Amino acid sequence: MPPLRGSLWALVLYDVAEEIDLEKLTDLVGAGAARTQPRFKHPAPEYVRFERPPVVEYPEPIRIGTGQELPARIKYFDYGVVSVELHLDFEAEWDELVRLSSRWIPSPDIEKFTAELVRTRLQRVGPALEQAYPAHLSEDYYIIHLREALDDEGQPLAATALLAKHGEQIAQIVRGESMPLSESERNEVLQSSLSYYPTDLLVVGWIAALVCDTLEGAAPTIQLLEYANTQLLEFRHYDEVLTRVLENVYKTLEHRGGLFRRWKMAREAERLSTLRLDVRELTERTDNAIKFLSDMFYARAYRMAARRVGVTDYRDLVEEKLGTAGDLYEFMTNEFHQSRAFILELMVVAILVIELFHLFGR
Predict the structure, then answer these.
(1) pTM strictly above 0.90
(2) Are 200 and 212 in contact (CB under 8 A)?
(3) Rounded distance between C-alpha atoms, residue 355 and residue 338, angstroms
């Protein structure tokens, strides 16, 4: 009997719109849609939940290039992200799972077929999309879920034993590598591990994660990993928007010209300020989609996942560019005020000259 049983998950996420009207979407998708809240296995207060749970749809299984049919699930998040989930059940030895993971993670078929699925679905649910994007940023993330991991005597392996005996294979699985990693790289992967009970284990990497837990215990962890990747996608979008806007502002400042050109900076500054407020509002909405308090297990799991997949890095980039935008806004408004003051002074001088002309011209 193979010692490992579980599922390989592929999460492919697309940023499709500024916002998705979930109520309207539910009407468009039909009775097959549902709203889901994570069911936490470990102790969690009631306020740890999605503020607006995603709408879930179950399309037909997707047939990939190998001929396999993969069960699919689509989630629509209110902040404009669509996530396609595919999974494949397996029973394997450790070396077989390493090879399977190395083929599963870099597979181009998965993104190809999920992109086509999302394209056809968006045609159907278009009226529920607010400010739909012409091009879609995407992220893919992979989860190796072990429902059962047995030792040589057929007994369940504890988390510490998993890391001690099979740390090398786990590091390869999380990285999608068929070849063994160096000791330093293996240690770097395994340092992002977390357990609540002796028999469960979470190891998070930047492109994949290993979750060793029951079906019920793994479900909320998979949802948190998915949510972290929706955040990454949103911050990537904000980063691109701010980069384009700042480039245009720099070009405007390079060709600001004379006095009256500076006078027009008020309009440019107003646009920049509006964008800053919009991005602030959107980032807060994304951050507030799910709430955590205290140092509970799921809060720590989420923070570790967010750090590993790059949410923290992109958040810092966005904050830095928002700060730059604020500095430019102040500079542009100061330029405008200086131009306005100069024009007002010219008008005062002109009025005085006219008055003097009338006074001495009589």
Answers:
(1) no
(2) yes
(3) 26
